[in-house]
Structure formats: C-alpha cells, structure tokens
C-alpha cells in the first residue's frame, strides 16, 4: 500500500457540511451515497446523511473506515480492523442511528479506497461525499472520474493547479462547490503537531486546526455555478500589463476583470469560485505543464534564478511573466480565461 507522505487527519465540521450540502438536495433522491474516507463513529459526513436520510430520500448510505495500523490515512485508530457499514434508514425513531444496532462488517484488507473490495463498494454507489486525504487527492479524483461517479469532496485550493485536476476543470468535468475559500476549522487528533499557535483552538476537549483556502470540488450542478459575475471595470491599457511571453493581460484581482476586453486574461486561481462556463472560457493555466507554449521552460538557464524565487513565494513554476523596467516580474499561478461572446 502507498502510504501518504504526511498525516491527512482532518475531520470536517458538521456546520461546514450542512452549509454546503444544502445546495445539492435534488441530487440525492433514491441514490446510494458512499463516504469512503470516514470512521462512522466520528464522521460528521455519516452524521449528516444519517440524520437526513429520510429527508433526502436516500436509498442507502455506505461508509468505510481504515484500520488503525495505517496512521497516515483516515480513522481514529481505535479499531484493529478495517470495516464498513451499510445504513438503510430503518431506525423507527428517525433520529441518529445507534451504531450498536447497525451491522458493521469487516473488510479483508486495510480499507484503502484503492483496494478491490472498496472499489466494489464504489461501483455500487451513485454519489461519493467525503474529505479525502489531501496528499492523495490526484489519485482519489482520478478514481472517481474513471468510475464515472458523481461526487462532492473537500480539497486544498492549490489542487486547482495540479495538472490532472486542472485538465478536468478546463473540460468542465469538475468545478468548485459553493462555500469556498476563507478559514475552515478541522478537528485533528490530540497529538497532531501544529507549529502556529493562532491556527489551534480547543472546543469541548477536542483539538482543531484552521486551514485557509479550502475548497469543495464537485461535478454536480448547483445554482451558484450559473451566477453571472458582474463586471464593472473598463479596460485601460496602462492599468493592465501584458505578459512578455504570452498574448494575454495580467488581472491581479477577480474584481478587476474588465467588462470590455475580448482577449485572453490571466486571473488568480480564486477565479474558479466565480467561474460561470456560460460567461467565460478557460484557456489554460500559467504553469509549464499547462499545454500552452509560454516560451519559457523549467530547464531554461536564463530564467533559473527567478524560478527559484517564484517557487519560494508559492507560485507554481511561473511560466507567465512580465517585464518591468527590464526586470522579470512573475505573478502567482494564473488561470488564463477569455470572455464568451
């Protein structure tokens, strides 16, 4: 089994789940939902769907849990076995189901979402909803796409810049959910190491870690996806520098997208949260593996030093750049877009 390179134990708060899931109710009628990175004893995804089983008119809920010997993957590590459970909403009181009254079944393997038995559960499901391991995000999404599943999952904003993920975004096969960006608090194990004190809080004896720039990713339609972005600025050449190595202008803020410019524009990756495919076309991504010929490649010795500086600042490879008084100026990663006429 390929273990994650770092701990991925971030447990999503119920309030965040409720805020997002309320936008997709129409998708769940008569559907089988799979939460395949969730220990049902602590998972708020399980709690949400169990509480709302009848309201959503679900057919079945399936959750899987990793065994305790794999600490880099999701579980509370309080079970020696990888298990799964199936819930049919058959509790007579309509409240939260008693786990002691639900048949919990052992998995023969470790509960890895890539294992044959977990794939069989995936094949049975209609919709997958969970918070997958961020370090395995590419592989996790690839599996969902391969098996043609509807999904709503949590991921880091930087996943937008992953070559595999961005290609799906460009093809309109995956897009942003509703409640994106900003700081979200995730429950973590007590021994989880957090170096920044301001990113830690304790509530009711539990430890929480704040993570900014967290997105919901989905391939299910929601109303926000068709909202038109209101543009108020006019194009003034002096206010929008052009890239030296690609025919597009630099737009530093999504709110600064000009309403009267028909050419290509490089915008921050946060644009994805406002992206309406009826209003804009995504051309590419301002990094070397985007498929666009930006003229500069990572092995070009002339630009080696500025690439190092850009990557230290958090940009991704820095293929789009401008010249300012003869000096190379590289923005953070940019989505290259064009208005639809």
Question: Could you give the distance between the termini?
Answer: 49 Å
Classify the beta-strand content into a percent band: 15-25%
> What's the structural domain tally?
2
Average pLDDT, all residues:
79
Q: In the CATH classification, which architecture of the largest domain applies?
A: 3-Layer(aba) Sandwich
Element order, helices and strands?
A: EHEHHEEEHEHEHEEEEEEEEHEEE
Poorly predicted spans: 1-6, 68-77, 288-318
Give the biggest sheet. 8 strands, mixed
Question: How does this model look, in words?
Answer:
The protein has 2 domains: 11-224, 3-Layer(aba) Sandwich (Rossmann fold); 227-339, no CATH class. The strands form 4 sheets. It has an 8-stranded mixed beta sheet, sandwiched between helices. The chain has a 4-stranded antiparallel beta sheet with strand order 1-9-11-10. The chain has a 4-stranded mixed beta sheet with strand order 13-14-18-15. A hairpin with a 2-residue loop joins strand 10 and strand 11. It is built from 7 helices and 18 strands. It is α+β, with helices and mostly antiparallel strands and 341 residues long. 17% of the residues lie in helices and 23% in strands. The chain has helices at residues 14-21, 44-51, 53-56, 116-124, 137-146, 163-170, 304-313, and strands spanning 11-12, 32-35, 60-65, 83-87, 104-106, 127-130, 150-156, 175-176, 183-188, 200-203, 206-212, 214-218, 249-250, 265-268, 280-285, 322-324, 327-329, 334-339.
């Amino acid at each position: 089994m390929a273990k994650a390179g770092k701990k991925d134990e971030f447990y999503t708060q119920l309030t965040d789940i409720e805020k997002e899931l309320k936008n997709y109710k129409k998708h769940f009628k008569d559907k089988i939902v799979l939460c395949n990175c969730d220990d049902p004893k602590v998972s708020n995804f399980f709690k949400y769907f169990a509480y709302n089983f009848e309201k959503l008119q679900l057919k079945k809920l399936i959750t899987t849990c990793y065994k305790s010997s794999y600490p880099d993957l999701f579980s509370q590590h309080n079970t020696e076995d990888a298990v799964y459970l199936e819930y049919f909403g058959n509790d007579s009181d309509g409240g939260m189901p008693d786990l002691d009254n639900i048949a919990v079944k052992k998995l023969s393997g470790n509960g890895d979402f890539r294992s044959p038995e977990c794939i069989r559960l995936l094949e049975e499901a209609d919709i997958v909803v969970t918070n997958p391991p961020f370090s395995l995000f590419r592989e996790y999404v690839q599996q969902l796409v391969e098996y043609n599943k509807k999904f709503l999952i949590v991921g880091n904003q930087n996943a937008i810049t992953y070559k595999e993920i961005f290609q799906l975004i460009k093809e309109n096969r995956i897009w942003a959910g509703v409640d994106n960006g900003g700081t979200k608090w995730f429950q973590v194990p007590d021994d989880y190491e957090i170096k920044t004190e301001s990113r830690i809080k304790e509530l009711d004896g539990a430890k929480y870690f704040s993570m900014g720039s967290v997105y919901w990713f989905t391939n299910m339609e929601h109303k926000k996806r068709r909202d038109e972005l209101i543009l108020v600025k006019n194009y003034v050449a002096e206010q929008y520098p052009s890239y030296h190595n690609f025919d597009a202008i630099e737009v530093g803020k999504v709110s600064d997208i000009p309403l009267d410019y028909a050419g290509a524009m490089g915008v921050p990756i946060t644009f994805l949260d406002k992206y309406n495919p009826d209003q804009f076309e995504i051309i590419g991504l301002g990094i070397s593996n985007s498929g666009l010929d930006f003229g500069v490649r990572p092995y070009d010795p002339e630009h080696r030093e500025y690439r190092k500086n850009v990557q230290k600042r958090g940009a991704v490879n820095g293929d789009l750049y401008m010249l300012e008084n003869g000096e190379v100026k590289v923005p953070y990663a940019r989505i290259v877009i064009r208005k639809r006429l």
